[in-house]
Task: structure prediction
Amino acid sequence: MESLKVFIVEDDKLYGEMLRYHLALNPDNEVLLFSTGKECIDNLYQDPDFISLDYSLPDMSGLDVLQKIHAYNQKLPVVIVSGQDDVNTAVSLLKEGAYDYFVKDEETKNRLWHSLQKVQENLLLKQEINQLKDEVGKKYEFRNVIKGNSPAITRIFDLIDKATQTSIVVSLLGETGTGKDLVAKAIHYNSPRRTGSFVPINVSAIPGELIESEFFGYEKGAFTGANTRKKGKFEQANDGTIFLDEIAEMDTNMQTKLLRVLQEKELTRVGGNMIIKFDARVIVATNKDLAEEVNKGNFREDLYYRLLGLPIELPPLRERGDDVLILAKFFLGEFCKENNMEMKTLGSEAQKRLMVYTYPGNVRELKAIIDLAAVMSNGLMIEESDITFSKKNFTSELLNNDDTLDGYTKKILEHYLRKYNRNVLTVAKRLDIGKSTVYRMMKENEL
Amino acid sequence: MKGKLYDLGQVKMFLGDDKQQLGNMISIFVSETPLMIQALNENMQNYNLDEVRFYAHKLKSSIDLFQINGLQQDIRVLEQLAVEKTDVPSIQKYVSDITDTLESVIEEIQKEV
Result:
């Protein structure tokens, strides 16, 4: 651990020198003595780790100095050392954020020593946490998270790189299973905010009546069962990133509240009055077309623009060409490692079979297919027969729910348009109908 | 024979066996205390009792460190009287007595060291 820089602010030269001498007994401490509040404030650029502050200084009160120190660095531990045993002063200083309050007596040096030790221990813990976060960050480096080198995914790498440079809101769009949550983590752990927390919330998983208290926290007694004060997800994500997954599922009442919070960058806990500032980067994700939801009146237009930020549309696996095989080999290797199996390979016929499937469940589905194939295969090579696709295919899905003929027609058209990337000529050929008929049906069904 | 006016036990407890630092502390006491006494008296002459309180407060830790016989209580009384600002004659008396004692202490220390 690097040395601790300690400021002693004490206008009594004798007492200040005593404290300086005592704290400097630890060679890890670099102790600087200042005799006025102004001198201390002017030297804050040196980034001290700990300040011992005399309450009664000739140029400023201890409270004024404390406030100025905390305006510079809110988290800097400041111990007030006072010649006066005044409980009211002590309480008000502690409320103002003082780390501790000591009265000058024969025990002061020991108390100060212990405080400094505590600060040192906390700094060590923080360093350890940061090291662990760095390790997690490495795990989420783009290339470790998102495999592939297709043009579609290379473009996504560029966008993620841009997203990490600033705190712009990022909206992740794409079908289910395309890896939106992994991209959100990759952005967080590769951005300057990686030392803060990554706080994910699945909006659709929180009951409507709980969402406000989950997001913004609550005060003790705010409602039945609120036995203690609780910080909300936005506060937890301060200095870090909050990831709002399935944002399109948020009800309009909550959308209004979220908009205000995002605009003002401040919130109020449920049942509380205190305004709390926060600084969290926001990433949202949805597999719905948010613009369409705005048109339908399900999503607020002003919130849509607030959240749009940098849109990153993750391509479906069927549009990623050879990435299917890169991912399949990666998943196979991971599965064998995790299960202490001898390393298996993908046979050429199995590879061909994987390449013709359309993967409605995207990367998540591919992983499930590979895991199963690894289990089913008898040798060290995955054969074509080991590859099993989900029974939950388009046909069974289509017929599972009763619909009108027009309804079925729309679904069939939708399926083929998606499958062939809206190439009308190919869709017309596959359905054995004219191109103009496809266009007419698209218009009628607003596709 | 009159006993010593001060006791270095507390300072030594702070510093352990570091004689060089002890000398340094004594020289700070000898050089700084007269300045504080002067400021205390000037403010007393101008009836600036807030400043009298301030310097009494500042002298407190040095008096405690050097365990100056009889002044540990007096300096606290002076500080309180200067806050209350009601009994100016007593304040003047305390300032005068404390000044005399501290000057004697400085003289005594200078002779000894």
About this structure: Chain A is about 50% helix and 15% strand.
